[in-house]
Amino acid sequence: MRKTHARMAEQHEAEEAEAARKQQEEERVAEQRRQRELERAAAAEEARKKAQREQEAEERARMRNAQAKTSAPPDSGWRARTQAQTAPARAQSPVPAASPVSATGPPKIAGAGGWRQRMAEKEKQVGAAVVGTTTSSPAATSAPLPKDTDGFETVAEKKVWRPRRLQNQA
Description:
Elements: H1 2-70, H2 78-86, H3 115-132, H4 138-141
């Protein structure tokens, strides 16, 4: 009997140890579960805050775009200054705008104009002065330039002294 009583006591102690071990395991699993839930809640809160910040940023961007469309500040670049100086706004123009390509050439920009434009203006002035004066010779009123020269004069080659070793080089 003693053996059975001792066996029963050992068995009872083993069952208690097993129950304690299971309880500790369950507590450990429950603690891990609580930690995961806390981490998930923190991550969800962080995601919610991030989404809210993004939404606010998008709203601010929409407001800036709407403001920029309604009152666009003038560009500080040279193109904006040139356009602002030369072309009034369409609503302010008292005369209908001419077509972009007119018979006189491209639209004139203040301060722009190449040598061809200046030459054409000189020819107009010379032509007006010649027509306005009374001369007896018909050659003075109409003296067209030869077409092959394009208004340029040829210049004789300059004779420049060069050392012998450079004489045949141009």
